[in-house]
Amino acid sequence: MKIGSQPDYRTAVRGTEVFFTVTTTLQFTSAEVRSGFQYGWRVEIWEDDKGAPFGGQDDRIYRGKAAFFTVDSTEMNATRRISISASAGALDTESGDEEIYTYVTVWNDSTDGVPIGRRSVTHSFGF
Predict the structure, then answer these.
(1) Distance between CA 14 and CA 103 in Å, rounded?
(2) What is the 3-state secondary structure (H, E, C) of the chain?
(3) pLDDT grade, residue 54 (50/70/90)?
(4) Residues ≥6 apart with Cβ < 8 Å to 91
(5) For the domain that residue 118 is a member of, what is the CATH number?
(6) Distance between CA atoms of 48 and 58, rounded to whole angstroms?
């Protein structure tokens, strides 16, 4: 199993909520498909503090609930989407624009496998 494409996301603002639709491609081997194992994945929203005067530690703003699935032969190289939302207030962590990225984590839930993750590109937002 691997995350085949860098996660991408789109946002829509409705009132005080920011909705994120995250898309990525997950790739599985034929052995993983035949196994019938259950996999889990989740999306997190992070604020990129690289180069910030506050020490440069990125801040996790939101951790989505895990979603679980099994893979069949039509999904060996499947694009998956998940939607999450966060309040604009939670995303507004400092003065000026916010640099936001998403992070996708995938794991084999049946075997308690080691999670793998990949981050999206960073986009700037003004809230």
Answers:
(1) 22
(2) CEECCCCEEEEEEECCEEEEEEEEEEECCHHHHHHCCEEEEEEEEEECCCCCCCCCCCEEEEECCCEEEECCHHHCEEEEEEEEEEEHHHHCCCCCCEEEEEEEEEEECCCCCCCEEEECCCEEECC
(3) low
(4) 18, 45, 47, 61, 98, 100, 125, 127
(5) 2.60.40.10
(6) 5
| Residue tagged 């996708």 (tokens) | 104
What is the residue range of 20's domain? 2-125
| Model pLDDT for residues 58-104, shown as the tens digit of each residue | 889 899 999 999 988 777 788 888 888 888 888 877 777 788 999 99
Lowest mean pLDDT among 16-20, 22-26, 54-58, 96-100: 54-58
Total domains in the fold of the chain? 1
The Cβ of residue 79 has, within 10 Å, a number of other Cβ atoms equal to: 11
pTM: 0.86
